[in-house]
Specification:
Blueprint: H1 8-35
Length: 46
């Protein structure tokens, strides 16, 4: 059952894709905040 739905390999692959998607979305949010006027509110942290 190499990679078939429900197999350990398949579940691991889905978990990795989910984590990657979450990381990508967080990176987009961070970039968006860095480019927005809101960043000036947090300038004291830099």
């Amino acid at each position: 059952m190499n990679g078939k739905a429900g197999s350990e390999a398949h579940i691991n692959a889905v978990e990795k894709m989910t984590r990657r998607n979450i990381i990508n979305e967080l990176e987009r949010v961070v970039h968006s905040l860095q480019e927005s006027p809101v960043r000036y509110l947090f300038r004291w942290r830099n």
